[in-house]
Amino acid sequence: MLLPAGQRASGEWIDDILRARAEEKGLLARTPLAGEFPRQRVELVRGADPTAEVNRLYRYRGWTDGLPIVPPTLGRVEETLAQSPLERHVSLGEMEPLGGVATVEKVAANAVMAGCRPEYFPVVLAAVQAILDPAFNLRGVQTTDENVAPLLIVNGPAARRLDINAGWGALGPGWPANAAIGRAVRLVMTNLGGGWPGAVSFAGLGQPARYGLCLAEREDTPWPALHVELGYRPEQSTVTVLRAETVINVTGGLGELASVIGSAASLFGILHSGKAAVILSPFTARRLAGEGRTRADVRRELYTRGRLPAEVWRGSWIRAAVRATDWPEWATAAAETGSIPAVREPDDLTLIVAGADLPIPQHVYCPSWGYPPCRVTREIAAPPAGG
Amino acid sequence: MPTASLVCEGFRGQAATTAAGLGLPGLPTALVPGHVDVQSAEELRCNVTTVTVDAVIRNLTEAPPRAGAAVVEPAPGDIVFEGDLDEVNRFFYENDWSDGLPIVPPTPDRVREFLRFADRPAETELGVLLPDKRRATVWNVAVNGVLAGCRPEYMPILVALVEAMADPRYGVEHSGNTPGAETLIILNGPIIKELAFNYEQGALRDGIQANTTIGRFWRLYLRNVAGFLHHRTDKGTFGNTWRVVLAENEDALRRIGWTTIAEDEGVTGGSAVTISRYTGGGVIASVFGNAPDRMLSYLADAIVGKVGWELLFTVGMGAGSQRPLLILSPILAETLARGGLDKPALKRRLFELARVPAEKLERYIGEWTNLVPGQPTLHSLVKADQIPAVFAESEDPKRLVPIVCRPEDLMVAVSGDPLRTNAYAFAHNGILGYPTTKAIRLPAGWARLLREARAR
Predict the structure, then answer these.
(1) Domain that holds residue B164
(2) B38 found inside a domain
(3) B14: distance to nearest CA of chain A, Å?
(4) Do B45 and B150 share a domain, yes or no?
(5) Which phi and psi angles does A2 have, rounded to 5°?
(6) CA B57 to CA B59: how far, in whole Å?
(7) Residue A363 falls within a domain, yes or no?
(8) Is there a domain that residue A294 lies in?
(9) CB contacts, 8 Å: A98 with chain B
(10) A87-132 per-position pLDDT tens digit
(11) If you compute the radius of gyration of chain A from its CA atoms, what whole number of angstroms results?
C-alpha cells in the first residue's frame, strides 16, 4: 500500500499537525489512529481481508471521506502513473494549508483510493494543477467557514473518451468518471493539504459537492465549447475549475434562472467580484441559439436580469460586518441604481450546457465564494501512445 | 529574525530538506526562476524583479509556516517488517532503503553477529550526518553492512569509514552536489590480506566480496543514514555508481620502500581507510619506458588530461584543495623506484611536468565559470598570497603553471595488475571534501574472531 498522506518538502508529515489539531478540537473519535502509521513510502497490510483492513486503517487515520476506498496498492498506482507523462517524483506544488507536497505519485495514490480508473488520471492531475494555481486560493477554500467546493468542468475529447457524463444526471450519481475524479480532488485536498473537517477546515455545514463536483460540457452545445471560447483548440481537452459556494437547481426558463441568480447572488461573490457558474439546459440552449442568440448574449441577459435588490444588500449582515470601503466600486455604484448584478460583468458568468435534454428544462446556478476572482483552466495531457 | 534565502528553481526541494536537516524547517526561500548560469543579465534582472523580489518581501514580512513535529523513525531494535526474502526486498526497495539490488535482510541475528566485530557498544554515536541529521551509530553501521552483503568481520572497516564520513573535513553534506562526485575508499594495512581484499588484477572492478560490498555499503549508508535520495536531497546531475574499495599492494610498496596512502596522510601502523571524492578518472594505458625520464611526461600529461574544471580547486574556489590521485600498477612503481625515485621525489617530478598554460588556467577561473568571483588573474592571486609564487613566475600568458599548489598535493597509490604497465588517474572534487584518513580499530580478540569467521 502506498501511504497517501502529505509530507512537507522538509520531510515532516502533516498528519502530526492534524493529530494535534484534532486532539484540541476533541475530534479524535473520528480519527483515533491519526498520525499513527509507519513513516515510509509504502506499508504492507496482510490478513484474511486486507482490503477491509486497509479501509479500517485509512479511515481511522483520517485519509478517507467516510466512504470505503480502493486500496492504493503499488500495482494500481503503477497502472495509474503509466497514464501520465509526468515522472512520479515531480511536484505539482505544495498543498495549502498544511503544505503536503503534491507529487505525481501521491496524487496517483489518492486517485486510486477515490476509485479512479487509470485513464482518469490525466484529468485528476490537471484538476490538481488548477487548484494549486494561486488564483484558486486553496488555503481559503480549505479553511473558510463557508462550504465552498471546487467545481470541475471537463471539455474536449477526453470527456467522451472517459465517459465523463454531461447528460442525464451529470451531477450524479451514477457515472464512475464524474464521481471518482471529483472525489480524487477532495481526497488530495484532505490528505495532502490537510483539509480535515473541524480540525483545519471550518466549513459550517459542508455540502454534498464536497464529496466531488465534476461534470463535462455537452458536446452538442449549439455554441462553441467552453474551452474553445477560452482559447483552446477543439481537439484539446481541458478541465476548468471554479469555486462553487453551492449548487442551486432552477427549473424553468431564462427568466426563472435570472431570478434565482439575482436572489441567490452570493454576497461574498459580490464583495470579491467573484466568477459564478451557470449550467444551462440543452433544451433552453438550443431554443436560444435558434433565436440567433450567442452564449455571450445569454450571459449578458442573465447579467442584466439577475439582480439583487439594493435594499437586500443594505440590510444584510455582511453589509454591516464589512467596511463600506471594502465593497467594490461596481457594486456600490450599481446599488445606487436600485439593484446589484450577481457578478461584475457578464463574462464573469461561466456558462456551460449540460444535463438531460428535457422540455421542462433544469439549470444550475453556482454562486462563487472568496477571492481572488477565479476561473482556472488547465489542459489535460494526452494519454500515452498505445495507452 | 526574518530571512530570505534565494534558491534557483531546480534546487527548491534540496533547499527545503537541507534546511530541515540543519534545524531550520520551513526556512523561507525566494525562487529564482530557471538557473542563473544560462541567463543573460537582462533575463536575470527580469526574473528577479518579477518573481524573486516579491518572494523576498513575503519572506521578510510574513510569518514563516510553523514547523511540524519531527519525523518519528523506527527505534534501533524495532522489527520493521516480517516476510519472505522477495517481500523484504520489495518492501525495502519501495521504501527507498535499498539501491535496487537485492539486500540481505538485516535480521536481529545477523546484526548481532556484526556487532561482535565492533570495538564499541552498539549505541555508540559516531557522528551526526547531514542532510537528514541522523545519528550514525555502531548499530546502524551494522544494519547497513548486513544490507550491503558485507561479512560480519568487515565491521571494523565499516565503523572507520563512517567515522571518516562524519569527519567535518570530509564534508558529507556536499555528497549531493551537482557534479555528482563519488567517493573512492582506499584501504591500507594488514586487514587487506586478513579479509581477502583484491589489490591486483581488476582492483577497481566489482566481483570480490570485500571490495565490492564495502563500496556498496558506503552508498547505502549515504542513503539510509545521511539521507541522500534521488530527486530529493541528491542533486548530482549525472552521478556515478559507487566505487569498489581500492586496496593498495603493500607488498610492492614495501619492496620499493614507498609509503602507503595512509602513511602519506599521517596515519601509521595498523590498518586505515582513506576516503576522497572524485568527479571522474580514467586509465592511462601502456606506459612505456624503462626509466623515469621516459615515463613521467606521459603520466603527467594524462593527469593533466583528467583534470579540467577541477582546476578551480587549485587556484580559484578553495585554493590549494585540489588533490588528484595517480594509481600506478606495481611494475610501473617498481620501474620508477629503480630509476631512483621515492614517492616525494616522484611527486616533485610530476609537479614539474604536469602543467598547463597560465592563460588556460585563468580561463577556468574567469571566462568559463562564474564560480570564482572577481575574475582574478594568477598574478593577483599570488599577490594576495592565496597561491604560491610558482603561478606567477613571468608575465608570459603561455608560461606553464602547475595543476596543484604543492608537490605533496598529488596522491600516488600502488595497486592493480602487478605486471601490466597501466596507470589510473582520478580528478578530485576539491574544496567539497578533503581526503580523510581514519585508523581502523579492531575489537578485542580479533585474531580469534577472524578464525571463527573463516571457519563459518
Answers:
(1) 85-354+403-455
(2) yes
(3) 8
(4) no
(5) -85, 145
(6) 5
(7) yes
(8) yes
(9) 68
(10) 999 999 999 999 999 999 999 999 999 999 999 999 999 999 999 9
(11) 21
- For A19, the grid coordinates are 493529530
Q: What is the ipTM of this complex?
A: 0.77
Average pLDDT over residues A222-236: 97
Query: Of chain B residues 62-121, which have a CB less than 8 A from chain A?
Result: 65-74, 80-81, 83, 87, 91, 94-96
| C-beta atoms surrounding B449 within 10 Å | 18
- Residue B89 sits in the same domain as residue B53: no
Exposure pattern of B195-214 as b/e (b: 16+ CB <10 Å)?
Answer: bebbbbeebbeeebbbbbbb
Question: Contact B373/B319 with Cβ under 8 angstroms?
Answer: no
The pLDDT of residue B20 is above 80: no
Count of domains forming chain B: 2
- Residue range(s) defining the domain that contains residue A335: 245-373
Say if A347 falls within a structural domain: yes
Q: What is the per-residue pLDDT across B127-147, written as a single tens digit (0 to 9) for each? A: 999 999 999 999 999 999 999
Residues 6+ apart with CB under 8 A from B12: A9, B29, B31
Query: Is A169 a domain residue?
Result: no
Q: Closest-CA residue in chain B for A14?
A: B68
What is the Cα–Cα distance from B229 to B123, expressed in whole angstroms? 25
Residue-level pLDDT at B66: 62
Q: What are phi and psi of B347, to 5 degrees?
A: -65, -35
Total domains, chain A: 1
B231 touches chain A (CB under 8 A): yes
Q: How far apart, in whole angstroms, are the C-alpha atoms of residue A285 and residue B65?
A: 48
Does residue A381 belong to the interface with chain B, where contact is any CB pair within 8 Å? Answer: no
Say how far apart CA A292 and CA A286 lie, in whole Å: 10
CA-nearest residue to A21 within chain B is: B68
Q: What is the pTM of this model?
A: 0.86
Strand intervals (E) in chain A: 91-95, 100-103, 149-155, 214-216, 238-244, 248-251, 276-280, 307-309, 339-341, 349-353, 362-366, 376-379
Q: Collect all residues of chain B within an 8 Å Cβ-Cβ radius of residue A41.
A: 94-96
| DSSP β-ladder status, A214-216 and A149-155 | parallel
Residue B70 pLDDT level (bands cut at 50, 70, 90): low
Among B414, B397, B406, CA closest to B362: B397
Residue B67 lies in a domain: no
Q: How many CB atoms lie within 10 A of CB A350?
A: 22
Q: A9 and B74: CB-CB below 8 Å?
A: no
